[in-house]
Write a structure and sequence with these properties.
The protein has 340 residues and is α+β, with helices and mostly antiparallel strands. It is 42% helix and 24% strand. The chain has 3 domains: 130 residues, Arc Repressor Mutant, subunit A; 86 residues, SH3 type barrels, CATH 2.30.30; 83 residues, Alpha-Beta Plaits. Helix 10 crosses helix 11. The N and C termini lie far apart (61 Å). It comes from Desulfatibacillum aliphaticivorans.
């Protein structure tokens, strides 16, 4: 209940801030579909928390608004609620702990805290206790602090880099000359997207597989026809490969859970007579979506393409074979006892 109350009060602040001439209690009642008593209680709580709200009568009707001369100064161009939203999203930066990104953002949040009055901070602490951001899995990027620092400097300057890189499937390291276009954060991993001179095409590199990086000082021009949004739109995650139309049937038991999410921008969904779902995607490569399908176990079945269906079947057969031969801890104990 406490979380619902805080969420409603937060929305009331947003409604008032977005209005030109303030809002009446009736306006807020209609927007939040709640009672007059609840609205008055929320407004009193927000005033007690230090928010600069006041009422004035316009055409015989009391309207609530922010005062023109705030009790505390908000750095422009931030609005009050934008600044507080920034404060509440502090959990996101934990992913970058021990990197310069974390240091810079932590400094920013300290300045936000110094800007807001004590009563408002107490209110936000209550909100934050009911609002949690979970990002898992994630990597410890403090070990790559210097590489991230160098990349952050060369990206806006459009400077070429040389790096020693080891891909996931190769046991050997290779020397790459790369024009860095952008950094991308996805599923707890930071990726570098850029033109690889060794391969002669735009490639995606995992930052924590960069063993060494050197800034060459040579400038490059970002191609006018390159769009980061377009480059990443076809990947199920990060893979770039041949485009495939994939169709997957989801069981009735899991249709609601799967159907509540957008797994890819190209996603099309069709409800089936038995209560299940049929999802269709246009994705580059099959390996990444194969892993997603396997994560759903028996609740997902590939309809097309046949190539993907065969890949999933082979993977399941290999897993079954491994389980058939693997001894459990209990089996190992029995075997050791028998030999002794």
């Amino acid at each position: 209940m406490r979380g619902d109350q805080l969420a409603r009060q937060w929305r009331i602040l947003r409604h008032i801030e977005a209005s030109h001439n303030g809002l009446s209690v009736r306006d807020i009642m209609d927007l939040e579909n709640t009672s007059r008593r609840t609205v008055y209680r929320d407004l009193e709580a927000l005033q007690a928390a230090g928010f600069p709200l006041f009422t004035e009568k316009i055409e015989g009707q009391a309207r609530w608004a922010f005062i023109d001369d705030y009790k505390f100064q908000v750095p422009q161009p931030f609005t009050t609620t934008e600044l507080m939203s920034l404060y509440l999203y502090g959990d996101f930066i934990k992913v970058f702990k021990d990197t310069w990104y974390y240091d810079a953002l932590e400094s920013l949040f300290k300045k936000v805290r110094a800007t807001l009055p004590r009563e408002t901070l107490a209110y936000l602490d209550n909100v934050q206790s009911a609002f949690s951001v979970g990002i898992r899995p994630f990597k410890e990027y403090g070990k790559y602090r210097e590489i991230l620092n160098q990349l952050s400097k060369v990206l806006p300057r459009r400077e070429r880099v040389e790096m020693i890189y080891q891909s996931l499937r190769s046991p050997k390291e290779s020397l790459r000359k790369v024009d860095p276009y952008a950094l991308r954060f996805l599923d707890g991993t930071i990726y570098l997207i850029g033109f690889c001179h060794l391969r002669g095409e735009v490639r995606t590199f995992v930052v924590d597989r960069i063993k060494m990086l050197k800034v060459t000082g040579a400038a490059f021009d970002l191609p006018k026809d390159f769009s980061l949004e377009e480059y990443t739109s076809r990947s199920f995650k990060v893979m770039q490969d041949e485009l495939h139309t994939v169709k997957v049937r989801i069981s009735p038991e899991w249709s609601r859970w799967v159907g509540e999410k957008i797994w890819h921008e190209s996603q099309r969904m069709k409800k089936l007579p038995d209560g299940g779902l049929e999802l269709a995607f246009e994705v580059a490569g099959l390996d990444e979506i194969k892993q997603w399908i396997l994560s759903l176990g028996k609740e997902a079945c590939v309809i097309a393409p046949g190539q993907l269906r065969d890949m999933v079947v082979r993977e399941m057969q290999d897993s079954l074979e491994r389980y058939s031969y693997a001894l459990t801890d209990e089996d190992n104990a029995k075997e050791a006892k028998r030999h002794s």
